């Protein structure tokens, strides 16, 4: 199934801000404007890692490797 959510890694706004090297408020603005897709989980947002990779212009695999190297 191509839309299987078990394969999607979701990031918090703080994690996205760290990856993009911007403030959390900038991430919230991108989410609210629709430039960065996100889902609402309770009172917080979760952003698919692939969406962040698309915005910053790197393939998702490289973004995942960079996140694992930093951990």
Query: Percent of residues in beta strands?
Result: 15-25%
Estimate the mean pLDDT confidence.
Answer: 84
Structural class: alpha+beta
List SSEs in N-to-C order: EHHEEHH
Count of discrete alpha- or pi-helical segments spanning 4 or more residues: 4
Give the low-confidence spans. Answer: none
CATH class: Mainly Alpha
CATH topology tier name: Multidrug-efflux Transporter Regulator, Chain: A, Domain 2
Question: How many runs of DSSP E, i.e. beta strands?
Answer: 3
Q: Order of strands side by side in the largest beta sheet?
A: 1-3-2
Beginning-to-end CA distance, first to last residue:
30 Å
Can you walk me through this structure?
This protein has 71 residues and is α+β, with helices and mostly antiparallel strands. It has a single domain (7-70), classed as Multidrug-efflux Transporter Regulator, Chain: A, Domain 2 (Orthogonal Bundle). Helix content is 52%, strand content 15%. The chain contains four helices and three strands. A three-stranded antiparallel sheet has the order 1-3-2. The longest helix is centred in the C-terminal third of the chain and has 11 residues, at 60-70. The radius of gyration is 12 Å and the shape is globular. The termini are far apart. The model has no long low-confidence stretch (mean pLDDT 84).
């Amino acid at each position: 199934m191509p839309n299987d959510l078990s394969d999607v890694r979701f990031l918090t706004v703080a994690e996205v801000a760290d990856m993009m090297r911007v403030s959390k408020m900038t991430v919230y603005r991108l989410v609210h404007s629709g430039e960065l897709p996100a889902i609402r989980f309770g009172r917080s947002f979760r952003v698919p890692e692939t969406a962040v990779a698309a915005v910053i212009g790197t393939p998702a695999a490289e973004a995942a490797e960079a996140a694992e190297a930093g951990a």
